[in-house]
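Q: Joint fold for the lines below.
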Amino acid sequence: MLKKLLKYDLKNIYKFLIIFYSLAIFFSVLTRIFLNIEDSFIMNIIGQICSGVTISMMINILVNNLLRLWVRFKENLYKDESYLTHTLPIEKSTLYASKVLTSLISLFISVCIIGLTLFIAYYSKENLETLKNLILPVVNIYNTSVLKIVLIFLFIFFIEFVNALQAGFTGIILGHKMNNAKTGYSVLFGFVTYMVIQIFGLLVIFIVSLFNKDLMNLFVTNEIINLEMLKVIIYLSIAIYFVTFVAGYIINLNLLKKGVDVD
Amino acid sequence: MDLVKCINVNKSFGNKQILKNVNLTIPRGKIIGLLGKNGTGKTTLIKLINDLLTISSGEILINGEKIGINSKKIISYLPERTYLDKSMTIDQVIEYFQDFYDNFDTKKARKLLKDLSLDTTLKLAKMSKGMQEKVQLVLVMSRKADLYILDEPLGGVDPATRDYILDTILTNFNDGASVIISTHLIADIERILDEVIFIDNGQIILQSDTDLLRTKENSSIDDIFRRMFKC
Amino acid sequence: MNFEFDNNIPIYIQLVEQLKIFIISGKIQPGERLLSVRELALQTKVNPNTMQKALIELENLKLIYTERTNGKFVTTDRKLIDKYKKQYADELSNKYFLSMLSIGFDNKKAIEYLKSLGGNK
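A: Joint structure:
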């Protein structure tokens, strides 16, 4: 049953996302073409415009992906369509698993597409050098390649988004337990859940810092983040986001299992 | 084992109590009218049976089991609203029902839709609300269920459509199954009912065999209802 | 078969009456096989349970009988059919006389009135 649900959930989100993916890639190609035509002021202007559009398309992909997942969650589980969803012979756990898997898959692909768009539009030896120089210190302390570091940052970015998304789900579930102003409460509870995740993260970092001098500097001095600190923070945040994701999953599932009150 | 058994069911939203101590048994093989004025708790009761609301206190048993996958497999439910993804075509919706319901009779659904002479490649969003409701009725009646629950299937339809709906229900419900029809338009459907349940103000006022009630009161169910619940 | 129902009277009683008329009038012939309960219910647009109840009643009156595998048949006992026909005719006549009485015709006058009408047809 999970496979079938996934089919419909993915179809639903990709009906729209595919358009933004195509647009982003289309403009990234244009950007590349126009920015590489040398010695033409007009072409350069057009290239800059295309570059702007490309970047806004990338943001669009993320915002749209996130918003559509939330809207679908709400429509499918609490609005008119919920009359069908909740009367299907399917466990609530399967329903929720499908929603989360759809989120993971679509957000992952979106992040990949954004990476691809960046590559198409801006990849050049000089740009790569600039990037390398920028993150070289980090690369040095990790004793690893530039590519790996980029991937690690993308991964943190991805799980951060996944957590924000699931906080939204929690908000929607809790908001719809209220008797009125459900949308308002959904936003409020979603925001509060997200803040709780962030505060939990900070708390964990603070506790760890009690045993780690480098990290303690983050709290007691005004120094710019030093690299040793960054290393710990990266590992920690990956661990924290993983824990909050699993905890969020269990909490949301149990809330859903208690039943829903649809309008 | 009773098909549906409600034991001391209560439902409130905040301070507002919608259902009060509902005790009810739905037998097998009967067409049952759930009759009451608007806003008296008919839809709330139906939504509870379909897992769309949480019970405040009490218990509902379907075939002796709590509401869950097994009850959903045998209950075919028509809500009083359009509930399909409107961006889907009729063909896609049929596929959807086929995917999720083992007891869905695709052939029957196709035949009934053909009788409506509908273009099945059409998106639901492009059809009138009346047509969407007919499609939903066809889908619901094409399942070989043990219990059909139809919430206000006759709400605001013209006489021709009303006949179509009643015909479709009578012709297609599974042998030996029960049908619960909720409505406030009693005169239109009382001739097909085996049993009636009167609900008012969140309480079950009466449950009786239709013909017994007619003989006892010497009048139509509609008249009896009007006499009991004067507006 | 197009039936009009009066919601004030139990539906199965109205069905029994209608089917009885079909049988005594010969619309359904003696020995003829009836449609299945479900089909009859569909044609008359009533609940199959109600139709079933009506058929049981007709069976009690011996107007129809069940052959275990083949379904239900109208009785071939013409005497019985005639008996019900007479009964029904009596009922109708009584109704006529009662109604005429209520507007001041006694039985004799009522019969004469009927005769006078019959001549015109």
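Q: Anything notable?
A: Chain C has two domains: 11-76, 81-120. Chain C has a mean pLDDT of 88.
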